[in-house]
Amino acid sequence: MEILSVYAIGAGIYALIELMWRGWTHWTMLICGGACFTFMSLISGAALPMWLKCVICAAFISAVELGVGYLVNIIFGWQVWDYSDRAFNLMGQICPLYSLFWLLLS
């Protein structure tokens, strides 16, 4: 039950971040946000330095964003987001700038 609560909170927080940042969100982002927040919750108890936990979480979030982006944007063509105009982007799905943002938020 606790994991479900963490998942729901993460989905809501992610949606709020997107609404504040770009003015809209997509239902797939709630799924991603819940998964990422759950991962962050699970790793928070690990005996690792805080900086390393943040790096791991940012890498995990970026990997989820890449995978989901590939599915929803490239395969399904839903155009939920596109980072093609960002420097050093990977297939328009992730970029260093947003990975840095995830690092700071982690």
Keyword list:
106 residues; mainly alpha; 70% helix; 0% strand; globular
If you had to describe this structure to a student in words, what would you say it looks like?
With 106 residues, the chain is an all-alpha fold. 70% of the residues lie in helices and 0% in strands. It has helices at 2-22, 27-43, 50-75, 96-105. Helix 1 crosses helix 2 (27-43). The longest helix is centred in the middle third of the chain and has 26 residues, at 50-75. It is globular and about 40 Å long. The two termini are 23 Å apart. The mean pLDDT is 96.
**Count, helices:** 4
Identify the overall geometry. Answer: globular
Note the gap between the termini: 23 Å
Mean pLDDT: 96
Poorly predicted runs: none
Tell me about the largest β-sheet: none
Proportion of helical residues: 55-70%
Radius of gyration from CA coordinates: 14 Å
In brief, what are we looking at here?
The protein is mainly alpha-helical. It is built from four helices and no strands.
How are the SSEs placed, and which strands pair?
Elements: H1 2-22, H2 27-43, H3 50-75, H4 96-105
